[in-house]
């Protein structure tokens, strides 16, 4: 049974919609670009710092920084929804930036690889809290009709910044060395993100109350344990989205750690590696401006299934070839497929979640999704050490194809939903 909501009075100035909230929405887009830039400083140069500056020969050990990042970010995601509901979105966003401030400094002056691993643990907290809040706050602002658009614009800003920063760090590394010059970008991102979040961002919990007031409420509250079980495997749509998110970031974690080493093993210079590492997230970011709204119009499932299979094709092509031009095509396919999947998955989870526990359900989905970074980097590193990097890339491609098939079978379209 459901009952009408008789919650606290909501300020009359609070409205849902992109047009009604565009100044705050635009500010959050900019802030998430800085969040993405923090990851972008690592995409090209950090694996090379491990192999060339610290002389680490084990691929598994080199990618260990991604494992620390992925595990910590997944756990930060898991608690971010709880903290957002208890403390407010803005406070959690600021906390994420404060934790991220020392990260670029630690990478620039790290005397050992352990410092880089520790910096990435802090980066995981930064990303888990700050990125989670920017996407949740945008969804809060626009309401149910434009979730795909909101997520698409959020991820566009974040991953375009990842791509641009990966290119810039590659260029700077080719001119001035792997450290410290390329990492100065991260110092600027951290300071700007923190200052804007503290001074200009407004909390969005009133928008959630407004949406909840117009939505039927469950007769009894739902616990976080119940939400975790429901999002992980209790609901067909939420399970399909969670496993696809995990595999999507599993292949991203692999590409983050393995691709620079794989390309360098063929003698590709660092500036051209930077181009390849930029094309994938930049394509992913830019195309989400289109794929997010398309998921609102066409539905989520078809884009998710096709996107996973396009990613798999890009990985197979990259593993099977040894020339820059083919790797460029593979990176474009990987970016296209991820753009189809990423906003559609977050919107699908939002569709299947009640407004009163949507933030917590998204935090569980993001826990599984970003745990994929650690699983992908670790498994790819082990396979690469045993069989070679091409085999690692191909194995992750096969798993990505299987994940798309699971979505095709498991995800269902509910009446009134867009999945």
UniProtKB/TrEMBL annotation:
What is the predominant subcellular site recorded for this chain? Answer: membrane
Q: Which residues form a coiled coil?
A: none
Q: How does it sit in the membrane?
A: Multi-pass membrane protein
Q: Describe the location of the Major facilitator superfamily (MFS) profile domain by residue ranges.
A: 1-205, 237-419
Query: Localized where?
Result: Cell membrane
Q: Which UniProt keywords apply?
A: Cell membrane, Membrane, Transmembrane, Transmembrane helix, Transport
Pfam families with a match to the protein in the record:
MFS_1 (PF07690)
Write down what this protein is called.
MFS transporter
**Which species does this protein come from?**
Bradyrhizobium zhanjiangense
Taxonomy of the source species: Bacteria, Pseudomonadati, Pseudomonadota, Alphaproteobacteria, Hyphomicrobiales
